[in-house]
Amino acid sequence: MSLGLGVAQLAAPDTVRRISGVDDSATSRAVVQLVGARELVHAAGLLTSRRKGIWAWTRVVGDAMDLAALGLAIAHRGGRRRRRLVGVTGAIIGITVVDLLTAAQATRSRQIGSVRAARGSREGGSMELTATTTIRKPPPEVYAFWRDLDNLPTFMAHLKEIRSTGDRTSHWSASAPFGKNVEWDAEIVDEAAGERIAWRSTGKADVPNSGTVRFVPAPDGVSTEVHVVMSYDIPGGAVGKVVAKYFGEEPHQQLDDDLRRLKQVLETGQVVRSEGAPWGKRARKEFPQRPAQPPSDSDLAKGADA
Fold first, then answer.
1. Has residue 272 got a pLDDT over 90?
2. What mean pLDDT is predicted for residues 247-268?
3. Which of 40, 57, 228, 289 lies 20 to 30 Å from 283 when distance is taken between CA atoms?
């Protein structure tokens, strides 16, 4: 529409003035040509720019200017010219409604696209995990076990080593898919003995991460509810996330498995291993387990005594 109006007003300004009922004067001729040039600018912006919404709104502004000019012209005209101006004004009002709807739709589409892009950016390589387990030990004991960072690799399968570098700082090393290793420095940023520990990675971490673990007394008055919330960026972004999941490294499942092992270590003193999967996960032979076998004579004797 902008292209057609612009070409018409520049190529045949006299015809446009006659149809519109505008006087043949130096002022009207200049105005018609300026409006034609403006429409061509709108057309160029709408056809070439990615920000369609902004250019659609410039058309709405131009429509408002045209309606204001036509209103002044109608007030000073009569007879046949007035009727033509009224007809043109009605057409411009219709165009203005279309332009308003187009501009509003373009703006809404851009906002939705921005939200989706931002969400995609957050979800592409970044992930937030939550998990909970209940351990039949009091909160101070569970807290003390977790706070001793040397204990974490005993139940967090992906951790290889944690080396304390200060009272609240440490260096972490972990395994990643395809035999890769990742490392980072971390610091405890908030802590309440027996209640919670919050941490975050520092510096140029291979895997930027942060999280909080809370130790909440369970309703039975004996056990502890362990609530973990953590977020981190997966190496390789969204592709790394898909590949890791395919090779048995789905992060949510990892965290659930870690807490299950924490519960086993604190309640039984060791990780209980299923005999149905003697070599653990496909991607890494974590916590290798012995193959299933018939009970020994000692096992049978213990069963008979029981």
1. no
2. 83
3. 228
Quote the CA–CA distance of 127 and 184 in Å, as a whole number: 17
In terms of Cβ atoms closer than 10 Å to its own Cβ (0-12, 13-18, 19+), residue 224 is buried
> What's the Cα-to-Cα distance from 174 to each of 153, 171, 182, 206, 236, rounded to whole Å?
9, 10, 5, 10, 16
Distance CA 88, CA 242 (A): 59
Closest CA to 98 of 12, 1, 187: 1
User: Tokens standing for 39?
Assistant: 């429409």
- What is the Cα gyration radius of the chain? 36
Burial 230-266 (b: 16+ CB within 10 A, else e): bebbbbbeeebbebbeeeebebeebbbbbbebbbbbb
Q: Report residue 305 as tokens.
A: 């005594």
Query: Where do the DSSP E strands lie in the chain?
Result: 126-135, 159-164, 169-176, 180-192, 196-202, 209-217, 224-233
